[in-house]
Amino acid sequence: MRVVFFTNTPAHVHLYRHAVDRLERAGHDVLVLGRDYGCTVALLDRFDLPYRVYGACGTTKGSVFRNLPRHYANIVPAVRSFGPDVIFGVGAYAAHAGLASRTPAVLVLDSEPTSIDHAISRPFAAAFLTPHAFRKDLGENHYQFRGFCETAYLHPDVYQPNPEIRDELGLDADEPFVLLRFNAFGSHHDVGQSGFTPEQRRRLVETFAEHATVFVSDEGGTVDLDALPAREFDVHPALLHDALSAARLVVTDTQTVCTEAALLGTPVVRSNSFVGDGDMGNFTELERQGLVVNTADFDEVLSTGVGVLLDESIGVEWRRRRNEYVGGLVDLTGVIVACAEAGGPEGVPGLERWRAGTEESGPDRSAPVTEEST
């Protein structure tokens, strides 16, 4: 079998990298088509994936649209020459590549607000796979799994924290640290959205630095750390999840890092303009499980964060809730591999037809994750 995966962002590399590895080990031919965006190529290299870069774009809102014609001009011949049996991706690139090559395209996605992408992908996608908390009906070919896109690489059957991450970060064994992750808001689904202002970013650093070492991961590269009591998160981006797992606190205006921290059991506060009525199902579900604080109130961001830093028992309880909850989620990598080998989602264990409101039901739990397995 021949399989194509699209990795347009760093998160997509993580979403599919274990599936690529398992399929290759099973003797299948795999091609990863990657976009030079952020640290995507660095991750493709780090994990030794069989990739080709189809194009690049920056973190500004207009960059992706300016580069679209060139991207498609490279994607279509690459896919046709490879001759895949199935294509996996997250949005329009994969769906349209399927159309051009007459190949079924399976899209794994989790963001309800990307309505334009859904509209231009839906007529050409063979199937959509979304988390159980996804609230938007994508039609008769919409399937759901009990988990999140991030359980493809953070499920306890797949991920084990790196015990040397503190050495990589230059930290003492018991030194508490905070990771602040700031979004560039440059993707097409970020148009009209916003996160922390420059002044709020400064206040976050100065407030938390009174209680812990502060690391800043700034996607847009606009924060002047020389004037702040913080350190740049400058280790290899592949170590981000290890840092999230070891942190005392994560505060972010991004989406993916929030979910990642939650699934690792680290207290996380998320604040951006998506928060509120109509927020994405992932984050309302994680908050319902006590694994995320979503708030648009900046004072609440500060007070919640300081409370976590002052009371170590909060983190212990947070990890307990995570262990109980994640034990009932699927290993999404296994689902993707089974879907690839079957040529589609029909009959694949762990998938069922989408139906609204399933995040409210209790999980069919396997054994809870233990502290020793995290």
UniProtKB/TrEMBL annotation:
Taxonomic superkingdom: Archaea
Q: Where is this region: Disordered?
A: 345-374
| InterPro entries referenced in this protein's UniProt entry, alphabetically | DUF354 (IPR007152)
Q: Name residues in a coiled coil.
A: none
This chain belongs to the protein called: DUF354 domain-containing protein
Q: Which organism is it from?
A: Halorubrum ruber
For this protein's source organism, the top of the classification is: Archaea, Methanobacteriati, Methanobacteriota, Stenosarchaea group, Halobacteria
